[in-house]
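Milestone M4 deliverable, item 7.
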Amino acid sequence: MIAEVIISSNAKDLNRIFDYNVPAEMLGTICVGSKVLVPFGTMKRYQEGFVIGFKEKSEFKIKNIAKLEERWT
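Output delivered:
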């Protein structure tokens, strides 16, 4: 499953949706509104983001979500 994630940033070039693979261990707990940490670009740090939807496939090369932080509902 692919999560559609919005990166929590004020940078204009990040004002779009990014696709990330949902690891198997998160499948039962991740949902729309979940706060996640994701690898972004070539940086070694993780970026905070929020899951806004799911889909089956992505046209991009994607990375795994690193950590599920919490769920906002």
